Amino acid sequence: PEGWSVEEAKSQLDVLRGFSYKGKGLVGSLDEGVPMHNLNSVLEGGGYKYAGLKFYSEEFKEKFAIQEGDVLVANTEQGHNHLLIGYGA
């Protein structure tokens, strides 16, 4: 559009990959830990799957805490169907 400039995405975005977590930090509920989004939180073809939410009780770096306005995108997956990669939650 008129008045817009063209820039590389990296000049406008901060891209972070998820962190590797320890299984011992996984707990059963919000009472025990904080919500942790993961591959199972992304629907095949895009969208958020609340049933995939996990809870985590161990320490993690603040940069991995989701903030308002953040966009979660799957950049890997366990299967070979490629129904998660590149889709947002």
TrEMBL record:
One of its GO terms (molecular function) is DNA binding. Keywords: DNA-binding, Endonuclease, Hydrolase, Nuclease, Restriction system. InterPro entries: Restrct_endonuc_typeI_TRD_sf (IPR044946). GO terms for biological process: DNA restriction-modification system. SUPFAM superfamilies: DNA methylase specificity domain. This is Restriction endonuclease subunit S. The lineage of its organism: Bacteria, Pseudomonadati, Pseudomonadota, Gammaproteobacteria, Vibrionales.
